[in-house]
Amino acid sequence: MVKDFDKWNKEKKEVDAKIVNKELFFYAREIWWCSAGLNVGVEADGKHENFERPILIVKKFNADMVWVLPLTTQGRNIKFHHKLNHEEIKSWVVLSQIKTISTKRLLRKVGSISESDFKDVISKLKNLLKIESPLAGAFSEAEATNTL
User: Fold this and answer.
1) DSSP class per residue in the chain
2) What would the pLDDT profile of 18-37 be if each residue is shown by its tens digit?
3) Which residues are within 8 A (CB) of 126 and not within 5 positions of it... i.e. 6 or more apart?
4) Structural domain of residue 128, as residue ranges?
5) What are the backbone dihedrals phi and psi of residue 21, each rounded to the nearest 5 degrees, phi first?
6) How many domains are contained in the chain?
7) For residue 75, how many other CB atoms are within 10 A of its CB?
């Protein structure tokens, strides 16, 4: 798939130029559409004309910054996805793609997930963040110093 980064760059400039609306209220557990943009490789892209994607707000730091998880309708039964039971929308939270975003990216609120669903998401996220071994996936000293 060919990505139109030039088009997203124009849109991104408009998003960045927005003034943060201090009267915009948003909280953890809420689902919002946001200007996610075009990203690199396997990172979740926005869709349609405005490069939008639904996200779940995980943590609000202040009026300018939040942690979010992107949502997808392409469900996979893997440890990096968690299925939501949000009203009529079938979606999965992509746990492996937690991201800090500016609240300038928030477009419109979709709704909220249940407290129990949110607790499940946070629990799975915490488990994903646990480091089982400090060297898991790391190179050995011999491999790191090998000059091929």
Assistant:
1) ----HHHHHHHHHHHHHSPP-TT----TTEEEEEE----STTSPPPBTTTTEEEEEEEEE-SSSEEEEEEEESS---STTEEEEEETTEEEEEEGGG-EEEEGGGEEEEEEE--HHHHHHHHHHHHHHH--S-TTTTPPPHHHHH---
2) 776 676 789 999 999 888 76
3) none
4) 5-145
5) -80, 105
6) 1
7) 13
> What is the per-residue pLDDT across 57-91, written as a single tens digit (0 to 9) for each?
999 999 889 999 998 887 776 778 888 876 666 78
Beta partners for 90? 85
Assigned token pair, 132: 């089982």
Q: Which residues pair with 48 in a beta bridge?
A: none
Q: Give the integer Cα–Cα distance in Å for 68 and 60.
A: 9
Are the CB atoms for 14 and 35 separated by under 8 Å?
A: no
β-strands 65-72, 89-94: how paired? antiparallel
Residues in the chain: 148
- Return the number of other C-beta atoms located less than 10 Å from residue 133's C-beta: 7
CATH number at residue 120: 2.30.30.110
